[in-house]
Every structure is written in structure tokens, then in C-alpha cells.
Amino acid sequence: MICILIRGFLSVKTRLGEFMSSQGTNYPPGYYLAGFTVVRIPKSAVLSVKSCWLSEHIPFELHGLNAQLGLSFALYSEFLRGGSSRWYGYLRSLPSSVDLPVFWAYDQPSAHGRGGGSGIVGALTGNYDHDDPMLWLHGTEVLRRLNERNRKGLRLPEAIDLYYQDHVLPVLKRPDIRHLLEQEPALNGFRHAFGLVSSRAFLLDVYHGLAMTPIADVFNHVVENHVHIQSDFYVCSECGSLRECEHDDAHHDSTLKLNGETSDQDFFYEMVSNADIAPNEEIFNTYGEKLSNAELLIQYGFILDSNESDVVHFDLAEITSLFASTPNGAVNPLPFSTWRRRDGRISFQLWKLLLQLLVSRGNRTKATEHWSMLGSLSKEELIEAAVTQIHVERKLHGNGPDDQELESSNVHESLWTQVLLEMARVVVRLCETKKETIGHPVYVGQDFGEILDSVPVDRQRLRLAVSVAMSECSILDSCKFAWMDVIDVLTSDDDVIE
User: Which residues form a coiled coil (predicted)?
Assistant: First the structure.
């Protein structure tokens, strides 16, 4: 079931097939091909900073956190208008709560008010659901992202509250505005608006920017989606026109269309199918093809059972702590301090950094003359190390080094295999150390799967948090076991390691 727009507002619900049939399509009943326009959404129906009743009081930003905060202000101002809002019907259709981790900490009760129980089951079925989820997120990608600070040194919860105090309240308290509100402003109301924006808004074009888009926001997420929103992004930033208009600069190249016959794209945004839709099949959009579960939980409040985009980051301190000493100048400054791995593999950045640290630490005793004295390896040295690893991986998968070009390109392979062996041991330790920091401190090392099974289905926050911790530990285990296999190959071959 979906909703259709009547004069730009949400109205009666109808079956997709009935709606499409009413449009006079010639497609087989109940089956729709890729490229079909599922829904047209009038541009006049979207709620944005530009279209809200307080548009002249809200700074416009095209994207980023300030765009989210500005749209939250616009949306909240319409909520406060109540029945006087143009979007009253749409606002009533929105969920009354959006449970995002950014707000979980606000709901934690006093430690003195905890429920009873003992052991894992007792602890996880007490009356303190709002306390434990944040503890279970300890060491995870979710908490790492929530703790990131903006240029003003603020975490996301702090930035939301400060924006409300500095930008929202001063406007809403103005006498000429306050008497038009049907409700008193409250911080929790603005937080609710931010949650709706985070989980439902679309970046439409350079005029509306980020906007609440009726109908488009009812489709659930999968990576292999059926539909996507389609719009011309480059419209007039002053009036939203898709055609040449009075705001055009005659001395500036314009991306707008020449005046002429109009089309649906002048007045509508469209949800267009990019895959065939079978009868009685739920229609999915995608919120991003490469979003990890951490990103999905923070922004939308849910996770996928299996997500190929999940990653675990290691910061520089976690990596260098495994080395007794790191010579000055051994590691060149890098533009970021975290490294990503997934599917049992480590990223090239982490591989290169470990290589530099190991070489600089003294793993070149047999070939000092062949290696750079500093940890910054040459291109030729990196190629030699990579070729050695390719040979090891071929042996690991039962394929010998049959490429003559690779064979002849690495004259120092026996030396690099020693470094690779030490790298494998470091990666194993790195995964083990990282895993000890993930999840509730009381239950480190225990089976998170069994713990998850003990959590009641109605304890959604707790289930999400435990699931995230369990998934990231699983990723680390995959990486650990993959590199343990490398160790086995290198130590079982007398010709490889002397």
C-alpha cells in the first residue's frame, strides 16, 4: 500500500496496481517494467527551507549537517503551526518518534533506578533498556561516529542542541511569530524533527536542497532496490525554475533548459523503477548502496541482517601500540587516522602502514642494503612486497606461482616473506586487541549471539546494539582467521621461511 498525492497533499491510500491502472498504462496487470514512473510528486508538495513559512529566517545550506539542522527548523516550525500548516495532513502521517542512537543517551535513567536480575539474562531483561544499549555500543563504529566532533569541537548531540538554542528559539520567541504558534517550542520537539529529517529527507535540487518529500519517504531500504527518485538537480537556485528565468546571468554559462514546451519534470519529482516489479512485491528504494550498518543505524535507526559494506576502523594509536618503538620519521603524516578492512581483508592503507612500521622496526636485518633507511618505502619496494603476498595467497588457495613475470620481478622474495609473516602476526594481535574493546565491558569474550537470543524482541534498542557489536566482532574474527591461514602457509613451507 502507498499513498498518492491529491493537490500536493497526502490523501487516500490505494494499491499500486490500482493507481497505475488509473493512469492508463498498457503494462500487464500487476507487473511493471524498469523505467516506469511509479509516482509523481508535485514540487509544490515538498517541505524545505525555501518553502516553509519561516523561510526568510532560516539560513539555507545545500548539504551537510547545517542543511539537516536548517530543514529540522523548517519542519519543526510547521509542526508548531498545527492545523494552519500547509503540510498538516502530511505531518500527521509522520511517525511520532524516531529512535536514533544520537538521542539514546538522553533517555538513560539514573543508575539507582535499575531493575533486578542477575547474570546475562537477568541483566538484559531488567527495567533499564535505555542504559545498556550505549554500553553495548562501546568500541563500535556507531559510537566512534557519534563521538566525532565538528569544526567547532561539538559532537552531534551537542550541535543539535546548540543550534536550537542559538538559531531556533530566538526566532520562535519573536512576538510577531510566537502568537502564530499553536504549541510552545520545546527542545525535544526539535530533536524529533531532526530525527525525521535524518531518516526521511531527500537532496532534491539546488533550489530546495534537502527536503521532506511526501510519498518518496515511505519506501523501505535495500541495496538491490526497485525505485529511485529522479529530478533535474541544476535548476535556478533563486526560484527553482528548470527553464531560463529572470535570475539567469547573461554572462554566465547556464545549465538550465531553454524556454520552450514544458514537461512533467518542470512540475514534478518522480519515483522511477530501475528494476521490474512483480505482483504483490514490496517496492524498495535504496538510501545508499554502500551504507554500513553503523551509518544506517545512526541516520535511519535500523540495520541489515547482512551488510557487505560493514567495516571496522583502527586508529593510529591502536596500531602503533603493538610496536615497542616507532623511529622518528618512520611513518609519514597521513591525511586520516583510521584504516578500514572488511571481508577478512585489510585496506591498502593499513597494509602499507604495517609494512613501513615493520621495516623501520628492524625486520630488514638481512637486507639493509636493499631497503630504504626510512619507513617510507619506495614504489619498487611496495611492488616487491605485493608480489610476495600474491605468491603466498596463491599457495593458500592451492595455486602455485606460475606467472613468470611475477617470479622474475621479485629478487628479494625470501626477505619480504619474513616481513609478511610478522605482518600477519601483527594483524592477528590487532584484531584480538580490538575485539576486546567492543561491546558491554562486562561481557567481553562471551558469545554475543547467545546474549542476543536472550534479549526480548520488544527491547529493540538493546537488540540493535548487541547486533552491531556481534557483527563487528565477527568481522574481526574473519580477518584474524584469514591472516592465521597466511601464518600457516608461511611457517609450513621450509622453502619460504628459513
Answer: none
317: cell is 594509536
Q: Name residue 270's beta-bridge partners.
A: 40, 230
Residue 241, pLDDT score: 81
Per-residue pLDDT tens over the stretch 80-137: 999 999 999 999 999 999 999 999 877 654 433 333 333 343 444 444 443 579 999 9
Which residue from 322, 315, 419 is spatially nearest to 375, judged by alpha carbons?
419
* pTM of the complete model: 0.80
Residue 89 CB neighbours (<10 A): 16
> 3-state secondary structure string, the chain?
CEEEEECCEEEEEECHHHHHHHCCCCCCCCCECCCCEEEEEEHHHCEECCCCCCHHHCCCCCCCHHHHHHHHHHHHHHHHHHHHCCCHHHHHHCCCCCCCHHHHHHHCCCHHHCCCCCHHHHHHCCCCCCCHHHHHCCCCHHHHHHCCCCCCCCCHHHHHHHHHHHHHHHHHCCHHHHCCCCCCCCHHHHHHHHHHHHHHCEECCCCCCEEECCCHHHCEECCCCCEEEECCCCCCCCCCCCECCCCCCCCCCCCCECCCCCCHHHCEEEEEECCCECCCCCCEECCCCCCCHHHHHHHHCCCCCCCCCCCEEEEHHHHHCCCCCCCCCCCCCCCCCEEEEECCEECHHHHHHHHHHHHHHCCCCCCCCCCCCCCCCCHHHHHHHHHHHHHHHHHHCCCCCCCHHHHHHCCCHHHHHHHHHHHHHHHHHHHHHHHCCCCCHHHCCCCHHHHHHHCCCCCHHHHHHHHHHHHHHHHHHHHHHHHHHHHHHHHHCCCCCC
Q: What is the pLDDT of residue 128?
A: 45
| CA atoms of 80 and 180, how far apart (whole Å) | 9
Cell, residue 197:
529529517
**Cβ-contact 421, 491 below 8 angstroms:** yes
Q: Phi/psi of residue 40, each to 5°? A: -105, 130
Give the distance, in angstroms, between the CA of residue 117 and the centroid of all CA atoms in the same chain.
36
Cell of 475: 568481522
